[in-house]
Design goal:
The chain starts with 10 loop residues before the first helix and ends with a helix. It contains 26 helices and four strands. By secondary structure, it is mainly alpha-helical. The chain is elongated. Helices cover 66% and strands 2% of the residues.
C-alpha cells in the first residue's frame, strides 16, 4: 500500500522497508528495496555499505566486496583521498537533498547516543559506590540503588534489538548501523570522548568499511590485497551504552536483591525474567543459570512458592539427571510447609515418576552400564566414597555417576514420603543409600521413613521396623561423627554435635520414649554446633528447637515451672 501511493513511493520509504524486512529475516526483499534506494541516489555511500552488509548476511561475498569497491570509487571521484582519514570529518560529496538530510539526522543520532553512553557511565559509577555500601550492610543504600538502576533497566527492556520477533534468534547487532559502530568502538577500548570527534563523516565510514573487509576476508579463502590487517572475524557487540553486558548482568542481579529486601519480591522476579528473555542472556548458559538461581533465592526469601515450583521444574528440565539440580529441588521442598505442599503435588509426583522411568530405561540398557549397582547395603566397615563412579555412559546419553542417581532417588523418596506412599519411599531411600553409603542425610531420611512406617496402624511388625529405623539413625550418627572428628582433628563419642543429639531426641520423642528423649535434648545444650554445617552458625544452633520440644514434654508431664524457665532461657527474644 505504501508503494501504491505516489506520496509514499519515495526512497525514504524504501529505505525503511528494507530495514524492516532485514529485521524480520527476509533478506531478499530487503536487498530489493535497498537496490531501489541506491539506483535513486547512486552517490549514497551509507546505503551502499548497508546493502553490502545485507549481501554479507546472504553469504554473497562477491557482491559485498563490490559494494565496498563502489564506495571507494565514489570517494575517489569526489575528491576524498585515502590519506589522513581520521582528520577528514567534512563530507565533500555533492549529494541530493534527501541524502544530505539523512546524514544530518545520522549525526544527530550519533551525538544523542554518545550522550547516553556518557550518562550510563556516570550512573554505573554511582551504582558501584552504592554496591560497596550495600555489601557493608547499609540498608538505605538499597533504596538509592533501586532508584538509580530502574531507569537503566527500563532502557534495556525497551531496546528492540534485545527482544526480536523470533525469540530464538541470538543477538547479532543493533537495529541501527550507528549504534552498532559506536558499541564496537567502545568494545575495542576507544574512549567515548575520542569517538565523539572521530565517529562522524568519513572516519566512521572508513571504520565501517574496514570492519566489513575483515569479516569478508574471513569468509573468503583468498584474502583481499587491499586489506593488510589480520583476518579476525568481528564478533557481535558485547556492550550496551558503552557498558559490558557482564556489568549489566551484575547490576540486574543486585537490583533484584534490593527489590527483594524492600518487599518487591514479585516485581523482582518479573524484572529478572524480562532480563532472562533478552537474546543477550537467553543463549548464554552461564548467565541463564545465574539468573535462575537468584530468582529461586528471591522466591524462597519472599515465600513465593508458586514461582519456586516453576523455577524448580525449569532446573529439572534444563539439567536433568544431575545431582546438584535434585539437591536444589530437595532444598526448595524443605523451605516451609507451603513449599512442601507445592512441590509434592500430583503433577510433581508424575514428573518424578517419569524421571525414574527414564533412568530405568537407560540403566537397564546393558550396553550403557559401566558399573553395576548392588541394591543390598554393604556393612559400614566396607564403605568407601565412590559416589563419582560412572554407572551409565552411552553414545547418546550424558555420563551418570552414582551421586546423580542417588540424588534422584532421594528426591523421589521425599515426594513419595509426603504423598504418602511410605513403602515406595523406603525403597527409593534404600537405593540412594546403596549408591552413596557415606551420605549421612540419606541414612537419616531412611530412618525417618521407617519411623513413619512403624507408626501406621496397618503395620504388623512395628518393633522390627523400629529396630531398622534405629539402626539407620546409628549409621547416620557414625557418619556425621566421622565427618566432625575429621574436621576438628579429634576423636570421641559418636554424639559429638548438637545435630546428632537433637535427631536422636526427635526419634525417641516420636516413639514416645520420653526419658531417652529428655536425655538427648538436654545434651544439645552442652554440645557445640557442627563445624561442617552452613557458614551461618546461628542457623545451625539447635538449642532453641531442643528447648521447645523439651518444654512440651515437661508440660505434658505437669512440670510447668521447669517448662517456663526453659522457654524463658532459650526461646525468648
Amino acid at each position: 500500500q505504501l508503494i501504491a501511493h505516489p506520496e509514499t513511493n519515495q526512497p525514504s520509504v524504501w529505505e525503511r522497508l528494507a530495514k524492516c524486512y532485514r529485521d524480520q529475516g527476509d533478506l531478499s526483499k530487503a536487498c530489493r528495496f535497498a537496490l531501489d534506494v541506491v539506483q535513486a541516489d547512486p552517490s549514497d555511500i551509507d546505503m551502499r555499505l548497508w546493502l553490502g552488509e545485507v549481501y554479507e548476511d546472504m553469504g554473497n561475498v562477491d557482491l559485498a566486496y563490490k559494494m565496498i569497491s563502489d564506495v571507494e570509487e565514489i570517494q575517489q571521484a569526489e575528491g576524498i583521498r585515502e590519506t589522513d582519514r581520521e582528520s577528514q570529518i567534512l563530507d565533500a560529496r555533492r549529494a541530493t537533498a534527501y541524502a544530505s538530510r539523512r546524514r544530518k539526522n545520522a549525526d544527530e543520532e550519533r551525538h544523542r547516543y554518545l550522550a547516553s553512553m556518557r550518562s550510563a557511565e556516570v550512573v554505573f559509577k554511582k551504582l558501584d559506590l552504592l554496591w560497596q555500601r550495600i555489601e557493608n550492610g547499609d540498608t538505605r543504600a538499597m533504596g538509592e540503588y533501586y532508584e538509580s538502576a530502574m531507569p537503566m533497566y527500563n532502557d534495556w527492556r525497551h531496546t528492540r534489538a534485545f527482544y526480536p520477533s523470533e525469540r530464538q534468534r541470538p543477538f547479532r547487532r543493533y537495529r541501527t548501523v550507528i549504534q552498532t559502530n559506536l558499541e564496537n568502538d567502545a568494545q575495542e577500548g576507544e574512549v567515548v570522548e575520542a569517538a565523539a570527534s572521530a565517529a562522524s563523516g568519513q572516519a566512521a565510514v572508513q571504520r565501517q568499511m574496514d570492519r566489513m573487509r575483515r569479516r569478508l576476508s574471513r569468509k573468503q579463502s583468498k584474502p583481499t590485497s587491499s586489506s593488510t590487517e589480520p583476518h579476525t572475524q568481528l564478533a557481535p557487540p558485547t556492550t550496551f551504552r558503552g557498558i559490558l553486558f557482564t556489568r549489566w548482568l551484575d547490576m540486574f542481579l543486585m537490583l533484584g536483591k534490593c527489590m527483594a529486601h524492600t518487599q518487591y519480591g514479585p516485581d523482582a522476579l518479573s524484572m529478572l525474567d524480562t532480563v532472562f528473555q533478552s537474546n543477550v542472556f537467553l543463549h548464554d548458559t552461564k548467565s541463564k543459570r545465574m539468573l535462575k538461581l537468584v530468582m529461586m533465592a528471591i522466591s524462597i526469601h519472599c515465600s513465593l512458592y508458586d514461582h519456586l515450583y516453576e523455577l524448580t521444574r525449569w532446573w529439572c528440565g534444563s539439567r536433568p539427571n544431575t545431582s546438584g539440580v535434585y539437591k536444589i529441588f530437595a532444598y526448595a521442598m524443605a523451605g516451609s510447609s507451603a513449599a512442601t505442599s507445592m512441590l509434592t503435588s500430583s503433577n510433581v509426583y508424575k514428573f518424578v515418576r517419569r524421571q525414574l522411568d527414564f533412568i530405568n530405561e537407560m540403566y537397564y540398557d546393558r550396553a550403557h552400564v559401566v558399573h553395576p549397582i548392588n541394591i543390598a547395603l554393604r556393612p559400614f566397615a566396607e564403605t568407601e566414597d565412590d559416589s563419582r563412579t560412572v554407572v551409565v555412559d552411552g553414545p547418546n546419553t550424558r555420563q551418570l555417576t552414582k551421586s546423580d542417581l542417588a540424588a534422584l532417588h532421594s528426591v523421589a523418596a521425599h515426594v513419595m514420603l509426603v504423598a504418602p506412599t511410605i513403602a515406595t519411599s523406603i525403597v527409593q531411600y534404600t537405593m540412594a543409600l546403596s549408591l552413596c553409603p557415606n551420605d549421612a542425610s540419606v541414612a537419616l531420611h531412611l530412618a525417618a521413613a521407617y519411623l513413619h512406617q512403624a507408626s501406621r496402624r496397618a503395620e504388623h511388625a512395628p518393633r522390627s521396623v523400629v529396630l531398622q529405623a534405629m539402626t539407620y539413625i546409628e549409621r547416620y550418627a557414625e557418619l556425621r561423627s566421622m565427618q566432625e572428628t575429621k574436621a576438628r582433628g579429634t576423636s570421641g563419642h559418636v554424639v559429638v554435635t548438637q545435630e546428632i543429639a537433637y535427631n536422636f531426641g526427635r526419634a525417641f520423642h516420636f516413639l514416645g520414649m520420653l526419658g531417652l528423649a529428655c536425655e538427648y535434648y538436654e545434651r544439645v545444650f552442652e554440645l557445640p554446633v557442627s563445624m561442617t554445617a552452613v557458614a551461618d552458625k546461628e542457623a545451625s544452633d539447635l538449642r532453641c528447637e531442643a528447648a521447645y520440644n523439651l518444654a512440651s514434654i515437661y508440660i505434658s508431664s505437669g512440670s510447668m515451672m521447669r517448662a517456663k524457665a526453659l522457654l524463658l532461657t532459650h526461646c525468648s527474644i
